[in-house]
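Suppose you are handed a protein chain with no further information: no name, no annotation, nothing but its sequence. What can you learn? This example shows the usual starting point.
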Amino acid sequence: MNPQRLIGIVLIVLGIVLLIIGINSSNSFSDQVNEMFTGRFTDTTMWYIIGGAVSIVLGIGLAAISWKR
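A reasonable first move is to predict its three-dimensional structure. Written in structure tokens, the prediction is:
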């Protein structure tokens, strides 16, 4: 297996894990209270969600580039 494709798959899995952690933490009591008063989630939750999404996009990009070769 091409190392670039392997890195892409690892990034996709890491992104999925980060998204799950971010979504679970956004449903926590403390995050819900924070959102009620400030109108947004905590910075940590947002970084998990953003990091997961970016990791998935990069992983798909790396896997797709190595697939063409």
